[in-house]
Amino acid sequence: MKKLLLLTCFIQCSLYALAYNQVRLVINDGVSDTRLRQQIQQAVSVVMTEINRSHEQGLSQLEFPAAYIQKDAQDALNQLWQNDRLRCVEEEIVERVLTTRDGYQIRGIPLIVDAAKGGEQLGYQEAVINFNAAGVIQSFYYTINPELYSKLRMEQMGNRRYEVSDIKERMMILDYVEHFRTSYNQKDLKFLRQVFSDDALIITGRVVKVAKSEVVPTGKKVIYTTQTKQQYIDNLAKAFKSNSYIKVSFDDVVIVEHPTIHGIYGVTVHQKWNTARYSDEGYVFMVWDFRNPDAPQIHVRTWQPDYIDKEHGQRLNPNDVFTLGDFDL
Prior knowledge:
Helix content: 25-40%
Number of helices: 7
Shape: globular
Oligomer: single chain
């Protein structure tokens, strides 16, 4: 009888241990080296399964085998984990490998995300995982809109003006844009301090009421204030501290290279910002400097509201969204 009870307890514990999803990645294209393909497949399978186990058991810290993920990537994932509790609900993921400037990439890892504090449901996300040349994970970010990414790549590959190097350059820029987006979700002030140049110009638009006139018939217009990098970082620190979660997503991206300065890009994204206390939608324009591709910086960041008068359906005129031409570089 005692042995039967012990056996029953063992079976119950085993079933509990296996209650989480066992994730398996299958690579269907993009890498011919068998050993490298197996390494990437195993790395994603192990890391995502461990994330699921940690979620199921309510663990506060993620730990992965060093053979599959670099320490910096594990630390960054743990920083994200302190704010977002994510899990993969798919047992099998079939994806192709993309070649990047210094390694490889897997996109389209499906995730369900909840806030670590309070448990609010933050919805569906997809992850992008970057690997070094040996197939070891070196970063893990939330993606931009997946359909948008595919469209951007197809536009580049279908345009004869762009060579292969330009496609890789575009992927590098998008990689940093995705890192930038994820840094808000993980409240990564260290990265944000690093990526903004010391003399960065921060411009924020807000809607105010004014007297109605022929020029402003609705009685509402956008006015702009400027901040220094330090003021912006200080305000972000307060927002990060006072909100249990920050959910930032980009559902549109436009990238334009400066006509005369190679390595300078204007990046416009349509941003959705959500916290438990506040939400908004608007256009973020940034001037990115990739002349040092290992340490790119943002010289300008602007935010403009999507609507001037949402109640009456008055959107910001697309011609009023900031572009490279609005700044003397």
